[in-house]
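job 3f2a | input accepted
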Amino acid sequence: MKIFYYQVDAFTGSVFSGNPAGVCLLDDWLEDEILQSIAAENNLSETAFVIEEGDSYGLRWFTPVVEIDLCGHATLATAFVLLEHIVPSKDRVTFHSKSGVLSVARMDTMLAMDFPSRPAQPCQTPERLVKALGQKPRETRFSVRDCMAVFDTEQQVYTLRPDMQALCEIDAAGVIVTAPGTQSDFVSRFFAPREGIPEDPVTGSAHSTLIPYWAERLQKSTLHALQISKRGGELFCENHGDRVQIAGKAALFLQGTITI
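job 3f2a | predicted structure (260 res):
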């Protein structure tokens, strides 16, 4: 069996930055074990699998070790592949996913994703989180999926060197660290060692939690975000209540076939 495969760098306008995602175009769903094996073989933060379903598409995402419920950069990468290479006459694609209906539309030189909002609720900072991060955040919040640690400065976020084993003890899929930005409204990093991702280069889904927090704190609905991982990425965000818009660029790195 041969599967058409693309690798796309998301939330960047050029290759070798942003977050690389694998995109597999399927005729029908394969067994979960095969999908997981392909994702493990690719060894990227996420591999997306997509099938055509009438006028829309079914979409699933796998890390090297587990299927996840929502992924931003691999959704952006999949939309890029479809709109640039498969259905270039269209301006929008719609996906059905574990997180409901997601749509991605052209927006000038970018693609804009419509995602659910996942606000985080304040809580007491767990001591094990302080130990894992090596610094105490000014506040801690939990969303339906992730733990968010808020710091005072971009430099604090940039210099964090978390203990990945200790992060695995946090009762959350991932840990978002964030602070006000010096050249953007806010910055972030994202760690998910429990999901097989020590540090994710750029995490669209984390912004489902970051956007409502920073929109309320900064009293503005349009936000410019930078994820300050080693590869780095840029996101243009809007808060729409129970939905958020996350926009960015993408660049094709690889096109070929997988043989199994």
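job 3f2a | The longest helix spans residues 72-86.
job 3f2a | closed
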